Amino acid sequence: MNNSISTSSVLTASLLFSSLAMANQPWSQDRQWLFGDWNGERTQLEQQGYKFTAALMNQSADGLDGGYKDNNGFETTSQLTLGANFDLEKIADWQDTTAAVMITKREGKSLTNENIKDPRASQLGNVQEVYGRGEIWRLTQAWVKKGFNDNQLQLKVGRMGMSDDFNASQCEFQNLLLCGGQLGKSISSIWYNWPVSVWGVNLKYQFAPEWTLGVGVYEVNPDNIKTASNSDGFNLDMNNVEGATIPVELIWKPKLALFNALPGEYKIGALYSTADASDVGVAGKTHDGKHSVWFNAQQQLTQQGADAKRGLYVSFNAVINDKDTTAVSSTQQLSFWYKGPFDSRPNDSVGFGLANYVVNDRVTDRQIATNNSRGYVDYDAFAADYVPVQDDELNVELNYSYQWSPAVLLRPNLQYVYQPAGVKAVKDAWVAGLTMRINF
Description:
This protein is mainly beta.
């Protein structure tokens, strides 16, 4: 068993056993936090404007068949999150003002990197979305948000992830591309998802009851994604800023008669980065920027009885990237989940999703040309200087989310990866996964 597995197991076990000593009935199905309400102190603090969070997410993946090594490997990865939100209107009488601080720590290994993909190929998907950006402590959030005109206009400033406010999407899955914002999966050099934070500012204007327009400016700074030490996770300087990423997004939240007036959310957005970007097809060529566009849609399709939260939901996400500078030219995601499938389990859900990476054909052509220049015509599984030729990768997941209580979630899942890392010669992979989330 590797060190990451044992560390996660010890941490989880110690926290669980500690909770038994600290509180009565820690496994109650209506328990909000595993450590309880601190004899009422937690609720009282929230009423005064102080909300504290602590959570552990662990994701395990077992290779059932296929992949580059085809040896049924097992890996686990985890993330610890510690945070606080402050209602500054209650605390300091600053009207419509909130603030947040969040620190995260990730550890473990990825089954995709260790067993599923050809190690010579660049990564596309991942069967464990909580993996990545280094096994270090990170300052993930440190921002202040101020509302004006009854919060019709909101200004947010500080350290934040870009998908906190733009290209945001639901996360009901363990697979990376089926979880959360899509841009960080294909343009990760300029767009930073959780747990990375950057200096940024954004403005959201609700100009009609159903319509909101947002614009932001975020630094492009490679120092923010360094992983050599914990100090890299708390980098606050702007010494090596290379430019700015500027997203614009229009959000529509209707209740359409077509869907029985159930809530929906539709977003269309675009970004431009001013940082220099290398051409993916021509060595040594650079461009003075890059761009992407996206469309996100989430719609509740049905409602189960009188419970507004139970029913069938659908989500569709699509990203189109600049073909001159981006290896992944586009991504598409379609997912469904049903909340409250059984009357006895109103908080559980069943999920099914498909997600696809489309590799830029200019990248594929360059890989083929490189291999031809080295004398390779067919796939070579062993040559160190062979460059795996990449095409599309498809990810599929079926899961069941067992919500024992608001404090404890278990999500067993089955995943299928078609053409891992887009390499046709690598066997398609089947993976059994398990996500565990505990709110302390």
